[in-house]
Amino acid sequence: MKIKFLPQNIEVEGTPDKSLLQIATENHLEIRSICKGVPSCAECRVRIQEGEANILPPNKAELSLIGTSHFIDGRRLSCQVRCFGDVTVDLTEQVERAENQTKKIRGFRTNKQIESKAVNDTMLLNEKAEEKDKSKS
What we know:
It is a single chain. The chain is of the alpha+beta class. It has helices at residues 20-26, 60-66, 69-73, 92-100, 121-136; strands at 2-6, 10-13, 45-50, 75-77, 87-90. The chain is 32% helix and 16% strand. Strands 2-1-5-3-4 form a five-stranded mixed beta sheet. A hairpin with a 3-residue loop joins β1 and β2 (10-13). The termini are far apart. The model has no long low-confidence stretch (mean pLDDT 78).
């Protein structure tokens, strides 16, 4: 069976024992997935453009993540879809998400090296003890 991925217009051969996510990954097409097919993240949503009759309806795990929206817009979790005939898959949403993704920067980095003036608690106690000795004198 042939699986066509849009907007790249790439056609690949597929087998029913592999999910769309596995087939895409093997053919170097990026579909974002945090859970790697468990299903728990719903990041791997794709739109089935043609060939819905050649895939099984969503299972309980998929329905719990996407609800019944697949009836409205045809989106499914690629990690759960197994094809039994020719299918056309639209990856436009995945491509746009990858292009618009910005890296979240945590913290602040600088190239300037600064020596730390951190003091341990025991040293802090010693300093206070020295100040007391000076004040007694």
